[in-house]
Amino acid sequence: MNCDTFLQWMKTHTGRGMPENPEVIDHLTSCPACRQLFSLDVCLESAIQQAFTPHNLPAGLAETIDDCLDQFNHSHPPMDLPGHVQSPPVKSTDPFFKNDTDKTALMKKSIQKQLRH
């Protein structure tokens, strides 16, 4: 196996554990560059798996975040950032929402539900 063949194998392997293919193992043993690439891939796969593992939030965290955001929004005027053009509020054209407050409340409930799960 050469480096090009190994790279093709890297594109198709499952990324779980050590390779079982004897040619791949031999190549990793003899090629420091591919061994380093494989090691990096293993670390990356592990980090991705950890990032997408659901975590339980402490009780009340979603409500605390929501309360903090509400307090901030009520006590601070909108920020005027350099180079940022403030866009006018967009009115909902969806007949389900009577006004923007209904839409905001529904979005807030959806976010809270996601934070709880």
From TrEMBL:
Residues 72-104 are annotated as: Disordered. It comes from the Bacteria. This is Zinc-finger domain-containing protein. It comes from Desulfotignum phosphitoxidans DSM 13687.
